[in-house]
Amino acid sequence: MTMTHHQLEVSRLIRADQHRVFSAWTDPALIVQWWGAGGVICTEAELDLAVGGTYRFANQTPDGMTMWITGTFNRVDPPLALSYTWAMEPISHDTEYSLVEVSFDEVTDGTLVTVVQTQIPSEEARLTHVQGWLGCLEGLDGLISKR
HEC string of 78-146? Predict the structure, then answer.
């Protein structure tokens, strides 16, 4: 049986330079200020920003449940790009990881942040992730615009 995978792409212009946007995306103290969508907040962020390094984000839902997102960095190219695997804990031998690639492209008015996520296991998960990424990008823009 062949598994059908889905992908998504979302972008947002952030009115700040690449270094500032990349830093907000990779500094745990800043991540907890903007990460989340639809009432979900990030209560804890840990990351080892190096190829082969790992990350974990605690996402707390409005009902108080905490879900952990985890993965490993495949590419760390400040301030241009990141690539990392993505999965929800608990991790088991049959856990399917998706792949997230984030680019930070310098444009006239700031930085165009583009998130591409591939190997998403279902259309339902893809739609949930689209809304999540759009909310995260909105939060990132909100954090940077008030700083």
Answer: CCCEEEEEEEECCCCCCCCCEEEEEEEEEECCEEEEEEEEEEECCHHHHHHHHHHHHHHHHHHHHHHHC
pLDDT tens digits for 124-146? 999 999 999 999 999 999 999 88
Domain for residue 1, yes or no?
Answer: no
For the domain that residue 13 is a member of, what is the CATH number? Answer: 3.30.530.20
Residue 71 lies in a domain: yes
Number of domains within the chain: 1
Side-chain-facing half-sphere of 124: CA atoms under 13 Å: 0
**What's the whole-model pTM score?**
0.94
